[in-house]
Design goal:
The chain is an alpha/beta fold. The chain has helices at residues 6-15, 20-30, 32-42, 44-47, 62-72, 88-95, 108-120, 154-164, and strands at residues 78-82, 101-104, 128-130, 142-147, 170-174, 185-187, 194-198. The longest helix is centred in the middle third of the chain and has 13 residues, at 108-120.
């Protein structure tokens, strides 16, 4: 099965036009100049993360969130988003019945933004956003994992996922596929493409087959910033 070329996907990501909301969230992700000075000079925890493991923030599109939910919908167990940004995937997961739903994000500005979105949606007490380094959190009780990370860190992420995730867990990677694993399902095209991988007890996912899946919202909504939330 052919994988999308990461270089082509990166080019498409750079050329994609940003909406006003996207620009505001990118500004929050970068932290502006004041935050950069603060993080580099005054925050020891930030400096402990190697530069090559730091992942720039680009929010997931509505289509990407829909694809992730379609590949995780109906699965039991804890759901986590590694590098959860503004929290949209965690909020959508909760609405789809994937509970508990937890986001791990190191950038305090984005953690605050995610909590604000959850509060505005009426879900502040139903979802959890933690300011944690994704490389240091334990994934041993996680059965549904969402990642939207840069291709440069995905080989190391594969090692962490394989070492920590329980048998039966599913990983959904957005924008870029995991470099050596073979997906059990692929959805979307171009930059909106996502890949699903299932964890087996006898080694990394190596089943080489692709399931054509059509994105449908079903009973849940992935509109993460507008619709109200009804805790269940």
């Amino acid at each position: 099965m052919e994988h999308d070329d990461p270089a082509e996907a990166l080019t498409e990501l750079r050329e994609r036009r940003l909406s006003t909301l996207d620009l505001l969230q990118v500004a929050a992700g970068s932290g502006l100049a004041v935050y950069a000075v603060w993080a580099l000079l005054l925050q020891p925890g930030f400096r402990r993360v190697p530069l090559w493991l730091q992942v720039p923030y680009v929010g997931a599109s509505t289509r990407q969130v829909e694809h992730v939910m379609s590949l995780l919908r109906g699965r039991p167990g804890k759901t986590v988003d590694l590098g959860s940004g503004d929290g949209r995937i965690v909020l959508a997961a909760h609405r789809c019945g994937l509970r508990p739903a937890v986001g791990y994000e190191l950038n305090p500005w984005l953690v605050g933004l995610a909590r604000l979105h959850a509060w505005r949606a009426g879900c502040a007490r139903s979802v959890c956003y933690l300011r944690e380094d994704l490389w240091k959190v334990s994934l041993r009780d996680c059965y549904n994992v969402s990642v939207f990370l840069a291709p440069s860190v995905l080989p190391l992420l594969e090692d962490k996922l394989q070492a920590e995730l329980p048998t039966g867990a599913r990983v959904v990677s957005g924008r870029f596929p995991l470099p050596t694993w073979q997906p059990v399902a692929v959805m979307g095209e171009g930059l909106d493409r996502v890949w699903a991988y299932d964890i087996h007890g006898d080694g990394p996912p190596l089943t080489s087959w692709e399931v054509p899946v059509k994105a449908t919202l079903g009973p849940c909504s992935t509109s993460v910033l507008k619709a109200p939330c009804f805790p269940g």
